[in-house]
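Q: Hi! Curious about what Tat pathway signal sequence domain protein looks like structurally. Here's the sequence.
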Amino acid sequence: MSEMPHVSRRTFVRGVAAGGAVLPFAQLPGGTPAAATPAVPKETAEAPQTVTLRWLEGTPAAGVGNTWGVPWPQGALAPTESFALTAAGGADVPVQTWPIAYWPDGTLKWSAHAIPADAPLTETYTLTRGQQSPGKTPPVLVTETRDRVTINTGVIKVAVEKHGTALISSILRGSVEIARNLHLVSLRQRKIEDFRSASEPLTSAITSVRVEQRGPVRAVVRIDGTHKRRGTSWLPFTVRLYLYSGAEHVRMVHTFVLDTNGQDEFIAGLGVRVGVPMRDALYDRHVRLSGDGDGLLREAVRGITGLRRDPGANVRTAQVAGTKLPDPATWDQRVTTRLELIPTWSDYTLSQASSEGFTIKKRTKQGYGWVGADAGQRSRGFGYVGGVTGGLGFGMRDFWQRHPSQLDIRGAATDEAEATVWMWSPEAGPMDTRFYHDGLGQDTYPEQLEGLNITYEDYEPGFGTPYGIARTTELTFWALAATPPAAELAALARTVSTPPQIVAPPAHLAASGAFGGLFAPVDRSTPARATIEDRLDFLFDYYRNQREQRHWYGFWNYGDIMHTPDPDRHVWRYDVGGYAWDNSELSPDLWLWLAYLRSGRADIFRFAEAMTRHTGEVDVYHLGKWAGLGTRHGVLHWADSAKQQRISTAAYRRIYYFLTADERCGDLMRELVDSDQTFLALDPLRKIRTEPYTPDPHALSIGLGTDWSGLAAAWLTEWERRGPKAGVAEKKLLATMRTIARMPNGFVTGSGLYDLDTAEFAVAAKTVSVSHLSAMFGQVEICAELIGLVDVPGFEQAWLQYCRLFNATKAEQAAETGADFGNLILKQGHSRLTAYAAVRLGDAALAARAWKEFTSTDGYTDASPWRTTHLEGPEVLNPVDEASWVDTNTTALYGLAAIQNLALIGDQLSS
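A: Let's find out. The predicted structure is below.
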């Protein structure tokens, strides 16, 4: 055997302790991890004294506060470490810090940080260990009574109700009430084909309110409830309100779960509505709606421009600017005496019906006709209604991307206007969630397997239901002291569409040992490396452009990508069974996140972020008997009957969570801790079993690949977060690792019988059952993390055996395990397993084999075209740049293999 220098655990997982077994968390009674003094590892890493942070897209135009995460090497920082933050130029910045993950020895793994809304906006910041500056910004103050939570940011005061329909009863700026009665609205419709069918309005009903964070820089309030009317209840929701010290805004993260089967009741509208007191004269009231780019519709409720008689240039200029008009006694009196004859425009609607177009219309009041104002392509989804003494800015992120969406302003000429942000526009008609075909006679498993053989769709009656899927939307509400100038409003609109994000640099992320050490910063130092980097860029750029050219947008679709192209029609196979929406098949989520971690590219971050928001919500069930399972790829995101751990896996959410400390993403991963229970509800192998099988809670058949890796990812995340189920998660994780290690063929065994009570696998006989899919849904990444974290005797050996043998010869497989693995595919994607084994074993021959598997087996190679072809009509509907040789399975695996091979054995790549 050819040898490389043996790579220690500390070197392999940068900064991770190498000496001896890593101890599990100390336990309190009941299995809760203790915050006691951690065990000191024999060898500890040194934390960098400073970390230079930057804004993802450059210095933002508006300050709104920010939250981000930073990783640290094992053994370097105490769990209670404090930090200080300075802006470029040396100014102290108040920073709130809290831990979001720990290493098994108890030291700090990930810290989260927040800065105030009025923090100085500089290109970079320096984070250092030490005492934070108290700063000049008053802390955000949270007071709580039996009925209400009140949050004071120092600029606004927000009253959150614990009962009733209003999530926020009032927003005050000083003594001025800017907004009131913020609540959720929905429209339910029973018939979808008959658009004359009346819809039933429902509104939010609060069931619980909990303060999750109390400052001093950042406060978070969670509100749970449902939509109700006359005893009817549907669409359970979770809303989080985020308020930062010095802020004049409230950020809202809204999640609803679809608790209908999608066949006999439909969402005809879903939105957030808020009242806005109107105090000013009608000519001092203003409406603003954002259009393309920085475009704004700027109107007054009673306009005094364009009249037959001119009130005066200074009057007209003031109204367009949104400032208080001079006393009407100073105007041309031919206007002043006829003000009541000028119509007031009370109602406005901006409707984004598709990703390619919005319209704006207005009317004087209800019961009178609408007048078309203008149209455009893509609105940023921001509006304002108010006057010279104050008003409300409001907006929805991903407004045009998540069409059909809508902004309404009603009653601007009355004492109280009403602003509604529609996440589903009522003008679009009811949301169609019905299954798309009648089953085609596939009533039995053999018939369904035949269908799988022709359209790649795994159909089963009753399984194509959206019941339990979810969607999360981000909204922002500004309580403004007066109508802002156009440039400031445009900056707020940009903030809505692209919220600022602080990030740590790739070099620090890699050096910390985060995520198993499977990535390294982009390196173009040799021609061979540069070629791979160019190809990685080509693939991402292609998918980014395909999303735009193929219009992969829409309420349920945005964030996902397609699975396989159809070169004959020059489209992706959007209508062909399992070849349509990808639903995380073969881990494009991980490819994108690792691509970001090593590059720091903002466009990759945003693409991956949208995918995480989609795949964690839409492709996964959150209610019902399949809660905790995800749905395989298909024409509809919920269509396929394969409901599995491989899609719901926390491995696809972890990176976004730790980079942003996003609480909703944290919820999604915590939901999965007990998802081993789903194997009682659904047997993933039910259609292909040759022997009768009844789920037994003490002997559940669970695959050691796609099933266990999904479970392990959830358990690991809960354990390192020290969540409320950390003790249970630790038990399950370590017990399964121990019993997999005891199996004579380890992971090669394929599956095991799992006991829900003990969380152990029964030790199986020496059997061989290997699938090309087993390791391709996060198992590579989770095993790398686990081996770097805990020393479970035999586990690493079992995983390295699988890594060595998957791409080995049949003779080598049979000699070691008793049988060969059959005819396997996805060898390029599995080259990263070979590379991992090469590093852990210090085996140069394995490293050379890994590069050969990467470059000259299956997948993309030097012989691939590595270019696109431009097509225009009449061959295609719209002009596109097509690479018909690209598919998402191959892309995800090429991307992951390239990134990990470069990080692991890049020095073995010939120049």
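A: A fun detail: Residues 141-184+198-257 form one domain.
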